From TrEMBL:
GO terms of molecular function: oxidoreductase activity
InterPro entries named among the record's database cross-references: NAD(P)-bd_dom_sf, Sc_DH/Rdtase_CS, SDR_fam
Region listing for Disordered, in residue ranges: 1-29
Protein name: Retinol dehydrogenase 8
Biased composition (Polar residues): 1-13
Keywords: Oxidoreductase
Entry's Gene Ontology cellular component terms: cytosol
Record family assignment: Belongs to the short-chain dehydrogenases/reductases (SDR) family.
Amino acid sequence: MGSAGSRRSTTVAATDAQEKQQPQVEELDEDGSPRIVFITGCSTGIGLATAVVLASDADKRFKVYATMRNLGKKAALEEAAGKTLGESLFIKELDVCSEEAVNSLVKEIESEEGRIDVLVNNAGQGLVSVFECIPIDKAQNLFDANFFGVMRVLKAALPGMKARKKGRIINVSSIIGVNGHPFSEIYSASKFALEGLTESLAPTLRKFNIRCSLVEPGPVTTSFNNNAKSLREGIDSSTADDKTQALLQEALKEMYRTVTEHSQTAEEVADIIKNVILSRAPHLRYQTNSQYAPGEVQAKFSDATGDKAIDLMEKRFYPETK
């Protein structure tokens, strides 16, 4: 894996390219109060890092409500938050798969703060498996978290943002939401759905001075390295044919190589999310990894037939198979 310095340069390059060196920072509200930020999926990874980065802002521009499904997993966030806990960072329980829970928490925060300025929809789950072996209910559960969870939060928070004619929405997608990856079909499909939702909402929400952005990380250290063993053990290929089994093993080698050579930290992604929040005119899409993402993005958007993207995936994941 590359050094922290090389990973940092990767992040800076991506930020520079898309923000043109420095974002134009928005002003605080007229009363000088910090932005009220609502983040989902904060028990680990990008959500945890984003909550801490924003709450630790030297200029105190953010008040963060960091949510997670299971408060039994809050210890890591509490430790990382340090002295910001209870000052600029507040931990709340939230299952994005429960409409009642989402509506209740949004109302609670709006009642206490008067508004929600920024939504960071990060909660979700991954899945690597042989497509034919995935039970329908498992796929539905993944969509419930990755897509319908975002929908629930948006439905609850948008009326307030529209009424105030101000807001910022950041949906954490994935580079796999740009190009589909083998053996990640259901996860990829959920991120494609999220991308379509965000892109479709964006023109209308601009009329309310609400900006939507997609943040599209590549491999993130915490999301794979900590779970590599369980990932392999959790893959169901029991009913797959021999060739598919062989292709799966080849694809897993590529996944591991990609992570070891091109991963970035959750903190690096969080820094980019902060820049997007502070940007006066944010873009729709931000790829966070300038080493890994450009080839995929160019293959996707430079060829309307889609052939380049498929060729790229075939060559990358199956270099040994004719």
